[in-house]
Amino acid sequence: KKEEAHQKILLLKKKELLLKQEQEKRFEERARQRNKIREIKNSVSEFSRNIQSLAMHKTQNVFLAAQKKFSLQKDELFEKISEISAKKDEYIQRKSEEKKQREAKLLKLRALKRENKRQEEKTESRVLEGIKVTSMVAGLFLISMIGLNSGAILEVTEKYWDAEGYAEKQESTSRLVENSDDSVKNIFANIPALPVAGPISKTKNGFDTKMYLNISPPDTRIVIPKLGKNIPILTVENNARDQEDWDRLEKDIQDALHDGVVHYPGTANPGQHGNVFITGHSSYYPWDDGKYKDVFAALHDLEVGDEYFIFHKGKKYRYIITTRKIVSPSDVSVLEQDTSKKTSTLMTCTPIGSTARRLILQAEEAGVSY
Fold it and tell me: CA dihedral defined by 47, 53, 55, 61, rounded to 10 degrees?
């Protein structure tokens, strides 16, 4: 412990010595700083005295040097003023040229605008002339279409301009359907059938129908109560279809359409499993002498759920429309024969006056009576 105390005393003495040394250093540093301050003060005093001496005792040389320096600065200032003046003149000239260019461009733009206005007036005049010509052509086309399809238009609009007569026709056909116990031939002997339109396209392939034979008698008819229609159904020979002579088949169908609607050869007969396919005109050439050239024009009024009847061999077959669609002339799938059920299809051209598309009404047999 005595030794430890002795060591602590030595350590404290050493620290005390270090502190004294640091204090001495600080004192020396302060002394140096005071000396520097005194030197600076002396220098400042000397400088101040020199300044005062120069101010009080300016020589002629100093004055001349200052005058020369001032003269040089004045010359430099005049040169800068001259340079600025030249730049100003250049700027004014450039702005003047730019103004002239803008005025020239403005004149060109005005001239171009006047020219464009003249061109627009000419174009507008041409457009108006074109509109007039187009309107005249459209009017002539509309008049010609109305003239060519007047029968079909009257057929479609009959329920509006002759509502009473149309209702009588509907009632008459409904009575015929209800009183179908008599022979089909006697029922329809004294009732006129109405007209048709739109040639059908050639259907050259897509199904095999050779298993069906068309043996419909002359008194086979289709009755559509909603439209007040009672139309004979005609058949054509199977030879052209069997020989795949499609041009002759088309001609045979078109010839038969003069006297009613046509049961497409090779499709099922009423009562058979398959598709009884019937086609008729919605419009046709007005100079054609056929009585049935627009008989299916009003077919567009039939909807899903409407009914029609086919009288065939003394039997009355009732069909309910299940599908209504519009297809292209090349879509021969509508002729397909699904032998698992008894169906019927009515087809005509659409829109009226055109052969661009086909209106298809597909129906299912809903009953048969005698």
Answer: -110
